[in-house]
Design brief:
Rossmann fold, alpha/beta, 38% helix, binds alpha-D-glucopyranose
């Protein structure tokens, strides 16, 4: 029996900081790893510890214990990093403050120069922290570009410093297009050399994410399909040839869902709780939702929802166009989210065109989203790419059928009803076109009156095992493999 020490670096961890899906992973994965018993892992226990930035927004929220200060070298002399400790739901959590984190600023800045310095400082300080603690991690597990530099710096440090000689590295990729472009100045500031790898495209030699992809022992995409997709020109963002050269180290592990936080039987935000065995009660949530939005509370009208960042990635435009196309049929829709002003305006425009049945709620409202999953019939999720995605899992768990594009994690978590009438959990379409979306929406509208089949599909979705435990065990297998 062994203890595997995992240093988990991430820029967000729910409930401390959450901007997007990455925060859910930061909040759930380290915690689940710690809870795995040796019986489940084949003998090992996991000492997973979280390292996150002490974002200025956090200073008002928590008062962690100050451990010590230490230096992070830069071109202009050393910067002072401050290490703090905090217990996040049982996970030993280190927060790195000082240096650029002393400035008040958002979690993510649109000025990539500022974020470059911030996150490079964080990544290098994380390695310094391990040394100060004399805690030799077996696994350095970084996530996305913000913490990727730690993986690259580890390789450089290992050439001279035996402290990290046993440490293996993993890079989880949650969103490939965000590679840390625009952080070149931070490379120079922290004396980081550009990559010499001839296989990396010239433009990527000073981007933190590709550099971590060059040196990581494993590159883990957040779903199996996304792991395959990033090896192709359509999704590889110009790194596909390079990634193909590393294909033996590229794999996918789908994210989980916090099954207890997302349970319609206990969710205090719902007008009426329900489960697979009391599914008949669900209709009361639909009626409450219709009333809340002044829609006709007739349960025989299918209620569609869109809950999304308003973003080109999410294919919101496809959904809106299709709804316009199928305006002749009887359905209702509630659109929730914020983002690109043009997409927000397009949502409002659809509401104006179809005032009897479309509502646009242009805001972020986590509680409303729960009432929507619990009351609506179909979740629209036409993402152009979706590394994993979480909303489709939440929807299924709450008896709302996802209608999604067959890409990334959507393809891996949803079973199409037409392809598998008995085991289906939702509707999938392939090309990112309005035609394909409309055809699939039509399939959903046609199935809706068949209550028996619809209910069976709902139950299939509600009983899926999306638990983090399943994903965490796959990560452990990778850790074990790397540690021989
Ligand atoms: C990013 C991806 C999303 C994924 C999340 C967590 O936000 O866009 O698909 O679920 O990261 O991995």
């Amino acid at each position: 029996m062994k203890t595997i020490k995992v240093m988990f670096l991430v820029s967000e961890a729910d409930p401390l900081v959450k901007v997007g899906g990455l925060g859910d992973v930061g909040g759930s994965l380290p915690q689940t790893l710690r809870m795995l018993s040796p019986e489940m892992t084949g003998g090992d226990t996991l000492d997973a510890r979280l390292v996150i930035p002490f974002h200025s927004a956090l200073r008002k929220k928590i008062t962690p214990t100050h451990l010590f200060d230490f230096e992070v070298p830069s071109k202009d002399g050393s910067l002072l990093a401050q290490a703090y400790q905090y217990d996040l739901n049982g996970v030993p959590t280190y927060l790195i403050g000082g240096g650029p984190f002393l400035d008040d600023g958002p979690i993510y800045n649109s000025d990539t120069n500022i974020d470059g310095v911030k996150f490079f400082f964080f990544s290098l300080a994380a390695l310094g922290l391990a040394k100060k603690l004399e805690w030799q991690p077996d696994i350095l597990h970084a996530n996305d570009w913000h913490t990727a530099l730690a993986v690259y710096a580890l390789k450089l440090i290992q050439q001279t410093d035996p402290f990290f000689s046993g440490t293996r590295s993993i890079l989880s990729v949650h969103n490939l297009p965000f590679m840390g472009a625009g952080t070149e100045a931070a490379f120079d500031f922290f004396n980081m050399p550009a990559s010499q790898d001839p296989l990396l495209p010239w433009w990527a030699k000073k981007f933190p994410l590709p550099l971590a992809m060059q040196t990581a022992d494993r590159i883990i995409a957040v779903s199996s399909t996304y792991a395959k997709e990033i090896l192709t020109p359509d999704y590889g963002c110009g790194l596909e040839t390079f990634l193909q050269s590393r294909h033996e180290s590229v794999m996918g592990i789908v994210n989980g869902l916090d099954m207890s936080a997302w349970d319609p039987a206990t969710d205090v935000n719902l007008p009426v709780n329900f489960s697979v065995t009391t599914l008949k009660k669900r209709v009361q949530n639909k009626q409450a939702l219709a009333q809340e939005f002044s829609l006709n509370p007739d349960p025989s009208i299918p209620l569609l929802i869109l809950i999304s960042r308003m973003d080109q990635q999410k294919g919101v435009d496809l959904a809106l166009e299709s709804m316009n196309e199928l305006a002749g049929q009887n359905w209702q829709a509630i659109l929730l989210g914020t983002g690109d002003p043009r997409l927000e305006a397009a949502c409002r425009a659809l509401e104006t065109t179809l005032p009897d049945r479309v509502r646009a709620a242009i805001r972020f409202d986590a509680k409303l989203s729960r009432r929507m999953y619990a009351g609506a019939d179909v979740l629209l999720m036409p993402s152009r790419y979706e590394p994993c995605g979480l909303a489709q899992m939440m929807a299924m768990r709450y008896g709302c059928l996802p209608l999604a594009r067959a890409t990334g994690g959507l393809q891996d978590t949803i079973v199409d009803v037409s392809e598998s009438p008995r085991n289906g959990t939702g509707f999938l379409f392939k090309p990112a076109t309005t035609v394909a979306f409309s055809e699939t929406l039509q399939r959903a509208l046609d199935l809706f009156p068949d209550k028996k089949h619809w209910t069976a599909v709902q139950k299939n979705g509600m009983t899926q095992d999306f638990s983090w435990q399943k994903s965490a065990l796959q990560y452990v297998q990778v850790y074990q493999e790397l540690l021989g």
